[in-house]
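Entry 12.
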Amino acid sequence: DIPGQYYVSFARWNEMSLLRSPRTLRELRQLAATSLEPESLERFIQLLENNAGYALYRSVSAAKAELSSAENTELRFESDGVLIETPLRRETFETWIAEDLSRIGRAVDDLMAKAGLTPNHVDQVFLTGGTSFVPAVRRLFERRFGEGKLESGNQFDAIARGLALIGQESDIERWASGPPEVLP
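Predicted 3D structure (tokens):
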């Protein structure tokens, strides 16, 4: 068995570098020595030692982005003897993110309930960020609000633009203390 902490850190590109610590690499080598499949752990260690984790993350991100416009794609990654080639299907990807979709749906429902709003009160929903390209995410919002209310544009820089606009305000304290009050 591999401790779950390695999977969690590996799944977060910003934590992958922490896996390169001498202590962690030593622990992984000990696990490989007693593993039924040591080659897999040795390739993982090699990936970490070659500092290729971020490159792998970029390959995964590219495959996920491709699945936003295609039903199928291939994840392909190669670095210093580590080769990953695997077909991916959007349908499979959507099962992987099902719990995330559920959390997004609950958050929207909770916000609407807290504000005392129904979808009829909402004129427009602006989707932003790379996740807004994921068809399952769009369907989630379409089911709640209707396709005609969804808008998007500048998905990758809209958040930064919003933060820049907030930064230009003379009193940003209301933003620093949390989201503004939602008024019906």
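Annotation: The CA atoms of residues 28 and 45 lie 7 Å apart. The two ends are 52 Å apart (CA to CA).
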